[in-house]
Amino acid sequence: MSRQITKDTRLCISLAGRPSNIGTRFHNFLYEELGLDFVYKACTTKDLVAAIAGIRGLGIRGCGVSMPYKEACIPYVDELDASARALQSVNTIVNEDGHLRAYNTDYIAVIKLLEQYRVSPDLSFALRGSGGMARAVAGALRDAGCRAGIILARNETTGRQLAATHGYQWRTELGEAQPELLINVTPIGMAGGPEAETLAFEPAVIDGARLVFDVVAVPPETPLIRYARMRGEDVITGAEVIALQAAEQFALYTGVRPNEEQVDRASAYARA
């Protein structure tokens, strides 16, 4: 018999400008696998204040937060965990009896991936983007010891601020620079967007890189990742980020930490 939803079933949601089924499938797969009385639903909103109030008022246990709400939601929660406070960016809200505490599990996921891929802190890098996810990635790079970095951002205010916070350079264009590590933290390459088929970096820049990292998760094989693979370069995908950060969210919501095999199977199911 399939799992029944009752009055006691706990609800978790996500808020995103462009909701996808990845998180929904990931979390619900693990709820079923582990026999947990939870259900997960992806949402969007045009009224963030009302949405956050709904989390509190309806007793929604947890909420994943994606672009463009990662900074905008901060004034409406009660407490920032150290990960969210340091970055001033939120991707997870946990409701404890009406008290909303915010976290940033993106940061945790990126730190783990940098360790997993043994990314040398001596690599020079260029990070394209200056929004909430860019803050998480830049903070993880800094804490991993990476020193020679360029923040590429068209928005001078947020670009300069992000670069200054972590001790990196800010530019609008790479110019003659040839970074060894390229990171895209913008919607370039995202399915359904206006730049879905666009490379986040020029081909010549990608050709000279050693490692390419694209945080875009939909699709997992973005134009940037496809091109880098074709050139025989090492890659880190957004699908890997979303799986690790979702596992951290899952543990915060349920108090249960899935093992690596369970996370891998949930991730494969989410992407299928």
Task: Compile the SSE list and pairings.
Layout: E1 10-15, H1 22-34, E2 38-43, H2 48-57, E3 62-65, E4 79-80, H3 82-87, E5 92-96, E6 99-103, H4 105-116, E7 125-128, H5 132-143, E8 149-152, H6 156-166, E9 169-171, E10 181-184, H7 203-207, E11 211-214, H8 223-230, E12 234-236, H9 238-254, H10 260-271
Parallel strand pairs: 1-2, 1-3, 4-6, 7-8, 7-10, 8-9, 10-11, 11-12
Antiparallel strand pairs: 3-5, 5-6
Helix pairs in contact: 1-10, 4-5, 4-9, 9-10
Number of distinct beta strands: 12
Continuous helix count: 10
Helix content: 25-40%
**Annotated CATH topology of the largest domain:** Rossmann fold
Looking at this structure, what is the CATH superfamily of the largest domain? Answer: NAD(P)-binding Rossmann-like Domain
Derived from helix and strand composition plus strand pairing, the structural class reads alpha/beta
Oligomer: single chain
Low-pLDDT segments, ≥5 res: none
Integer-rounded radius of gyration: 18 Å
CATH class of the largest domain: Alpha Beta
Distance between the termini: 23 Å
Characterize the biggest β-sheet: 6 strands, mixed
Work out the count of structural domains.
Answer: 2
**Strand order, largest beta sheet:** 2-1-3-5-6-4
Task: Write down the overall geometry.
Answer: globular
Q: Specify the CATH architecture of the largest domain.
A: 3-Layer(aba) Sandwich
The residue-averaged pLDDT reads 95
- Strand-residue proportion: 15-25%
What is the ordering of alpha helices and beta strands? Answer: EHEHEEHEEHEHEHEEHEHEHH
